[in-house]
Specification:
Elements (H helix, E strand, L loop, with lengths): L15 E4 L7 E7 L6 H9 L8 E5 L3 E4 L5 E4 L6 H22 L2 E10 L1 H12 L6 E5 L15 E7 L7 H13 L4 E6 L7 H18 L1
Parallel strand pairs: 2-3, 2-6, 6-7, 7-8, 8-9
Antiparallel strand pairs: 1-3, 4-5
Helix pairs in contact: 2-3
Length: about 220
């Protein structure tokens, strides 16, 4: 007998963390997406370490799929190759809902910035291209732009960063992403810093400079 495959929608709860800005004025929303096996706490810590982010409302969104890492710790993953297209659509709807909720609860302006680390860069890019909310700046650390995305449709600013000893996000892929942005006429800056797969003081300094310039242009 032939096997039939079906899907059904059900309720799944997602978690996000918020850090309020140091001022009471409407703030820019700065949303982050963690890497594979990480948590919302990991990404929020990274966001908050960027100089200047204290003026923004920082939000770290946790992936919907819980996993155990190879070290036995609990974390989360945005997706795998299995049912990939469906999970992309579900994740984008989830992120749209988080942005809707934050804008309904907190005093934020219309400016929106996304930050992605490692696996989270792909999610940040997809939420930018497919999501309902226009994104003004996109910060990508240690992960590539998904090859199937029409990144040229994004007209905001991009900060593309890689550690020189990163064994996951290669120099070749980093250079290919820069070429894609250039050919797509997307405004961007690159940041190659001495380090591995992750952030360090050099990255934070460059990211803070990008945020400062971006904030000035938005005011």
């Amino acid at each position: 007998m032939a096997t039939q495959e079906h899907t059904i929608q059900t309720w799944v709860s997602g978690k996000y963390l918020v850090r309020l800005p140091v001022h009471s004025r409407p703030a820019t929303l700065f949303a982050g997406f963690h890497g594979y096996g990480q948590t919302a706490e990991d990404e929020l810590k990274l966001l908050c370490a960027i100089p200047g982010s204290e003026h923004w409302l920082c939000c770290s969104i946790e992936a919907l799929h819980s996993i155990y890492t190879q070290h036995g710790n609990t974390g989360a993953s945005w997706m795998t190759s299995r049912d990939r297209d469906r999970h992309i659509e579900e994740n984008v709807r989830y992120i749209d809902a988080v942005i809707d909720r934050i804008r309904g609860l907190y005093s934020v302006n219309d400016t929106l910035s996304f930050h992605g680390f490692s696996q989270g860069t792909g999610m940040a890019c997809r939420a930018t291209i497919f999501g309902r909310h226009p994104v003004d700046s996109l910060m990508l650390l240690g992960g590539d732009i998904p090859p199937e995305l029409a990144i040229s449709s994004f007209k905001g600013r991009v900060h593309l960063a890689r550690g020189t000893r990163d064994h996951i996000y290669s120099q070749e892929r980093y250079e290919q992403d820069a070429v894609r942005l250039l050919e797509g006429a997307v405004p961007f800056v690159t940041c190659s810093f001495t380090g591995g797969h992750g952030a360090n003081d050099a990255y934070f300094s460059a990211a803070g400079e990008f945020l400062t310039v971006f904030c000035k242009k938005e005011t």
